[in-house]
Specification:
Helix content: 40-55%
Shape: globular
Number of helices: 13
Structural class: alpha/beta
Number of domains: 1
Strand content: 5-15%
Largest sheet: 6 strands, parallel
Radius of gyration: 18 Å
Order of helices and strands: HEEHEHHEHHEHEHEHEHHHH
């Protein structure tokens, strides 16, 4: 069980993907799991695991700790491949954050006062306008760009608290967003946070999204690489090779696993 999760949450099935416990759920069940996690966890933090996040966490203990303290959802073809190899079964749905987070906000049974943190100036604010149209039941109480003094967070904390937010979307890229979210959640307990990666850029149209058919094939990374090769070539070309090598090593060392594991502590 992830630390701080409730007894109900601990009964949900998880799969160990290269050392990270990942929830096994359909989209609908993931929404219910997040609501439960936010209601009962001491660290109500939700993160996503993809190949890049997995690679970074393997070398960054502080990111690994943040993931261990959160409810982790599967994101992308690499994690699906890992599940098929190690557990003989893919995850029920690809819970890719850019599509899933807006769906969560639309369908959750909770009502939030939402603050968005991340991106260049103006991007988070524009993204919140889009989310208002998708999930109008919530209040959208403030935003802040992702360029601030991480060593002196008092001013940013004060802005967030003054907004009256009880839910935060953090989109600053891995590992910065996860580390910030864990630090904030341990300072201000009980405030739910979801790490959303590039969601603000896509919602605001600052960066283009892949066509729907590409996303259904779980090949959005190919589209992103084609659009931004100079920024992303190392992550996808080298990173994917590294991830596959790590997966192969884990398979050889640990053998295949049959069925899902109920992880408890």
């Amino acid at each position: 069980m992830i630390r701080g999760a409730s007894d109900t949450d601990s009964m949900r099935s998880r799969r160990n993907i290269l050392g990270i416990q990942v929830l096994v759920a359909t989209r609908r069940d993931a929404i219910l799991a997040i609501d439960e996690h936010f209601s009962t966890s001491e660290t109500p933090l939700v993160t996503f695991l993809n190949a890049n996040v997995s690679n970074i966490a393997a070398k960054d203990p502080s990111l690994k700790r943040a993931l261990d303290r959160s409810l982790v959802l599967n994101d992308g073809i690499g994690i699906g491949l890992s599940s098929r190899l190690l557990y003989h079964s893919d995850f029920p749905d690809n819970l890719q954050g850019t599509d899933f987070v807006p769906q969560y906000l639309k369908e959750t049974g909770r009502i939030f006062r939402i603050f968005a943190l991340g991106g260049i100036p103006g991007i988070a604010e524009r993204a919140l306008e889009v989310l208002k149209a998708i999930a109008p039941q919530h209040q959208y109480v403030g935003s802040h760009h992702g360029f601030f003094d991480a060593g002196d967070p008092a001013e940013l904390y004060s802005i967030i608290r003054a907004s009256g937010a009880d839910f935060i979307l953090v989109g600053m890229g891995t590992p910065y967003q996860e580390k910030w979210a864990e630090k904030f959640s341990t300072t201000f307990t009980g405030v739910p946070i979801i790490c959303v990666g590039g969601l603000f850029d896509f919602l605001s149209k600052h960066r283009p999204r892949a066509p729907l058919w590409v996303r259904k094939l779980r090949c959005e990374w190919v589209f992103r690489l084609a659009v931004e090769p100079r920024r992303l070539w190392r992550r996808y070309l080298f990173g994917n090779v590294i991830f596959i090598a790590r997966l192969a090593k884990a398979y050889v060392r640990g053998g295949r696993v049959s069925g899902d594991r109920q992880e408890t502590m």
